Amino acid sequence: MKTEDRKNFDKSYPLYLACxxxxxxxxxxxxxxxxxxxxxxxNSHILxxxxxxxxxNFEERDLALLDGKLIHANNFKKIVQSKGEVSxxxxxxxxxxxxxxxxxxxxxxxxxxxxxxxxxxxxxxxVILQVQFGISAEYLCTLSDVMNAYNGVAMEWKSxxxxxxxxxGEYKDIKGVIMTKLI
Length: 183
Description:
Radius of gyration: 17 Å
Strand order of the largest sheet: 8-4-1-2-3-12-11-10
Order of helices and strands: EEEHHEHEEEEHEHEEEE
Number of domains: 1
Structural class: alpha+beta
Shape: globular
Number of helices: 5
C-alpha cells in the first residue's frame, strides 16, 4: 500500500498539543472529543475546533463512527505518528503495523465529562467595550502549531473575553479560541 493511500489523521494538525495533559484536577482535558464532524481539544485556556474531513483522509462513514466519542491525547499522538494502517471501529481506533495491532479505545461522553466546546465556538458576539487585555504567548504559539498556521493567524474578538483564531490564508474549517487576561 502506498503511503499516500494510508488512512490517518494529518500530522500537520497535532491536536494533542492543545490538550491539558498537565492538568491533574481536570482529567477530561486529557482527551480529544469528536462531535458533529469536528474534533475538539482544549486545556481550558485555548480551544481548537477542526473539521475531521480537513484533518484526516478517512471516509465520511468511518468518521461518523467517531461522533460522540473521545480519545486520550497521548493515544491520538501515537495514532498520528504511526506508520501502520489505521482504521476506525465504533469502539476503537485500530493501528495495524507489520507484526502487531494496537486498539486505542474510544470513550463515550458518559465516561468522560468533556467541556461543552461547541457552545463556546458557536457563540456570536460583538465588541461592546474596549479594554486592554493580555494573551499568553505560549498558548498562542500552541494554537498556531495545532492549526498548522505557518502564515500566521487572524484573531476575531468576541465580547465574552475571548478571541476566535483562524489560520491566515487557509481555507480549511479549523479555528481556535484563546481566552484573554484582563490587565
